[in-house]
Amino acid sequence: MFADYSMSELGAIFAMQGFAGLILFSVFVLMALGLAIIFGQMGVINMAHGEFMILGAYVTYLVSNFFAAFLPGIFGIYFFIAMGLAFVVSGGLGLFIEWAMIRHLYKRPLDTLLATWGLSLILQQLYRSIFGAREVGVTIPDWMMGSLPLTDLIEVPINGIFVMVLAVGISVAVYVMMFRSGWGKQVRAINQNRVMAGAVGINTEWTDRLTFGIGCGVAGVAGSAFTMIGSTGPTAGQLYIVDTFLVVVFGGAASLLGTIASAFSISQAQSIMEFFLSGSMAKVLTLLTVVGILMLRPQGLFALKLRK
Amino acid sequence: MKTNTLFPRADIIGFAVLAVVIFLLLPAVLDSFRLNLFGKYLTYAFVAVGLALCWGAGGILSLGQGVFFGLGGYCMAMFLKLEASTPENTAIQSTPGIPDFMDWNQLTALPWWWEPFYSLPFTILAVVMVPVVFAFVIGVAMFKRRVGGVYFAIITQAFAAILTILIIGQQGFTGGVNGITDLRTLWGWDIRTDEAKEILYYVNGVLLFAVLFAAQFVRKSKLGRLLIAMRDQEDRVRFSGYDVASFKIFIFCLGAAFAGIGGAMFTLQVGFMSPTLVGIVPSIEMVIFCAVGGRLSILGAVYGALVVNWAKTTFSESFPELWLLGLGGLFIAVVMLFPNGLAGIWSEQIAPRLTKLISKNTNPATGQGAPAE
Amino acid sequence: MTDESSKKPNQSQSTGMNRRAVLAGGTALTASLFMPKNLMAADYPTAEVNTTGLAVTDDTVTIGILHSITGTMAISETGSVQAEKLAIDQINAQGGILGRKIEYIQEDGASDWPTFAEKAKKLLVNDKVASVMGCWTSASRKAVLPVFEQYNGFLYYPTFYEGLEQSPNVIYTGQEATQQIIAGLDWVSETKGAKTFYLLGSDYIWPRTSNKIARKHIENFLGAKVVGEEYYPLGHTQFNSVINKIRLKKPDVIYAIVVGGSNVAFYKQLKAAGIDMTKEDPIVLTISVTEDEIRGIGGENIEGAYACMKYFQSLTNENNMEFVKSFKEMWGDDMVIGDVTQAAYLGPWLWKAAVEKAGSFDVDKVRAATPGIELGTAPEGYVKVHDNHHLWSKTRVGLAKADGQYDVVYETAELVEPDPFPEGYQ
């Protein structure tokens, strides 16, 4: 297996594959974080998660067109503005959806699943009516599409670094919000006992709405970042949804740390196997491993010690 | 009197009405094309009835019923494909006598696990048992560890996704994304003709009623009452000394068996099986059939499957560009406004008024209406 | 429709009134020989041209359009629907077929194969359409094929595909695999001196079969070497690992048959990984990226790659100029036209030619009349229907530019014979 390569090449293989694995890890974290926040803290499964991501991607598309048309001079930095807007727009839609739909269904968590599935169908069709059935091409600033040559063999894609930095940044931000802020305390209090939290004066309604909004906003940012590496079309959200759910389930759905750990293990396993096997087989083997572990440990890697 | 407890009067009426609809009304008013379509919808009703038991009675929401539907369907499709792949029919292949998609994928011999599907009795057994075994494994892993609720729902969904990817990835053995197509005969009987489709429709109807009777029996038995008790207060049932997990596993396997039969009937009536029926999307749609019909009612589930599919077909024929909006809206409306679905509307709105109307004219009648039980 | 388009394509094919032997290879002549006779419906009594109960009246004939306009395949199939509607409008503006206007019933396959089968049956059994323009993926075609054979329908299928099929009820207006692959490989081997190839594809039947043919050709006919062959699941969006492998193997050519959303991811990541396609080291040669896909990928991300197709929007022949103009008039200036869109556009025209040659809408007669039908007005140039229901057509190689169009850098001198069951490539 290694015989064909020289030592320096082998070193390069491991360096580059390690890096590819880290990029995949970051992508998984970005995908799953929004879903994990909403599920972990509210017990709501947002089946329209992929569509919220694509909303962020479409926002990026619109912003890039706007900059290309009116502000070509500073096109190079539009992406940051686009990500901010993606957060605001997806988050805003999230707030609205929470108000219109989700809050009526807190006592029926299984039903939120169905309602948000309906929402995802509606959003897909809206995207199709507004932006057309075809994929749209998002122009990425040139500086983000290049790569940094480290050695002859090793080149590091800049968008990969960008995704990694973003994933780390958002994870830290979420961690701070959840575990170091008063608001996070409120969210966790509600998660543990809604009635009591209300009784001690926490505005449960508003906290829920904000949690849902933030989860959707993070999805929007992820979608915005993914315009660098993937496609933007009405149904592109479906490309990510399977991996997203697997990461969240495998991690033990109620734990943010679990989500990150599971994203790490799945991405590393997949990228190592992808290198030594063919792509399709790697995917199948990864999935089978995940299933196998889920069979032995259905509550996921990191389960809350709650017995229901 | 056992029959009375198994079939209260309202249920008898409900079953009778459904029998009239399926065996008399639909065949009378529909041409053979539309009847075949309704035959296809009825195959989904098998899944919906199973879901009404698991979800409505047992509180177990599976978003992976497509897996069982697909497994049943694939078992049947394998048998039919082998029958269609005679050496004469496949003479142009490099290896005649094996299914065409295997030949395209450079397989030169039939995989060993295809061999048993030359036998129809084995296939019929497999249609039921493969989904059941699969459900049993999942059920033991999950319920013994007390995994339930939303978490169970998304794990089953993950299974649906994984099985789809496996089927598509292993195309040499499974036909891949194309599925297993071009099925022709069942023991020499051409299943593609209009007469055959009509016969299959009735076979389908009879099987559906068998499944409905089984479901009714389960609901009216002690098991059914325990299930409802578990749904509402699982811990109390556990403290009363019942093994909650075993009951859940049983009902989950039963739902899987129903779905498997539905899948096999689907293959027979539509003439092929493909991974698009296994994945997340069809699995959730099947839940919607059940939700629209009324998750508490097994008869409602049948009506739900018929109504939603009929609406989907009609809607996509008249407004193809907008049907997703309608379908999405229907999901939301049912969940938000009519959580008990058609059966709920019937038992809460229509039946009481009907009863009033009837009781004005005749003797006081029983309170409950037909589909609702 | 506008006036320009109503003047547009004329069938070179002689009509039922005036039946001739098919011009054997007389390519240049056919385009302008016959002005369209204004065929009057009265000359063709309905009872005579429609003996099998199809949806034909004294002044209309109904056909079906069956594509996905929802679901994941809507991205690809939209262009085909647009082209078919354009062709129908143009035919109607010329007076229709046998004096009858074409009406169409459009059904949505919803990217779901059972739905395709259901809708196909509805079109044939319920609506009694005279022919169907439709399907895109192989899976959808496989799903409807038994329906078309059972009810004797007639399908015009526009997509380039893997071959290994030849149904009496389907006309394949796209290329089968050898037509698309072999000439392109010859070209890259001869002009670029390519010696090593890395084959890559999405994991389903078309890329696998195409790569099988490519491998046989590379190894047995070109004497070159395949250094890697890989498949990724449909919808896969992470290609960094395979890009690393490619970098290590240093092939002369990356032969890519990646489709759908994966396509976009692959090219974006290829570029981001520092593989500059304009430097041609390695050369990227694809058979799955048309102008349609480039819109999603972004021209700047695929600039410098080569695609092997039979049609590019940038073809400069007169037919194509007219076609592109009317397409944009009908569907908007920002539209692009890819290989499959053009092939879909041929469907209604080929059917018209066949019906007029047969002097009947009956499927059996149309089928009998179809082999040998020529179209001098096709945007891709002259095409002809082979006995095996595929089209003779040229293979072209295009170089992708940053504006999302291709420069045609090579085309075969002669039409390439379709060969759905190629000897020596199985």
Automatic annotation (TrEMBL), chain A:
InterPro entries: ABC_transp_permease, ABC_UrtB_bac, BCAA_transport_permease
Stretches that traverse the bilayer: 12-40, 52-71, 77-97, 158-178, 210-229, 241-263, 275-296
Keywords attached to this entry: Amino-acid transport, Cell membrane, Membrane, Transmembrane, Transmembrane helix, Transport
Organism per entry: Tritonibacter multivorans
Gene Ontology, cellular component aspect: plasma membrane
Signal peptide segment: none
Membrane topology: Multi-pass membrane protein
Family: Belongs to the binding-protein-dependent transport system permease family. LivHM subfamily.
Subcellular location: Cell membrane
A molecular-function term among this protein's GO annotations: transmembrane transporter activity
Record flagged with keyword Transmembrane: yes
Record-given protein name: LIV-I protein H
Keyword Iron: no
TrEMBL record, chain B:
Topological type in the membrane: Multi-pass membrane protein
Record GO cellular component, one term: plasma membrane
Name of a matching Pfam family: BPD_transp_2
Chief location bin: membrane
Residues annotated as transmembrane: 12-30, 42-64, 120-143, 150-169, 199-218, 239-266, 286-310, 322-346
Record keywords: Cell membrane, Membrane, Transmembrane, Transmembrane helix
Subcellular location: Cell membrane
The protein's name: Leucine/isoleucine/valine transporter permease subunit
Upper taxonomic lineage: Bacteria, Pseudomonadati, Pseudomonadota, Alphaproteobacteria, Rhodobacterales
Automatic annotation (TrEMBL), chain C:
Region (Disordered) location: 1-20
InterPro entries, A to Z: ABC_urea-bd_UrtA (IPR017777), Peripla_BP_I (IPR028082), TAT_signal (IPR006311)
Start-end of Polar residues biased regions: 8-17
Pfam families membership: Peripla_BP_5
Highest taxon of source: Bacteria
Family matches, as PROSITE patterns: TAT
PANTHER family xref list: ALIPHATIC AMIDASE EXPRESSION-REGULATING PROTEIN, PTHR47628
Name used for this protein in its record: Aliphatic amidase expression-regulating protein
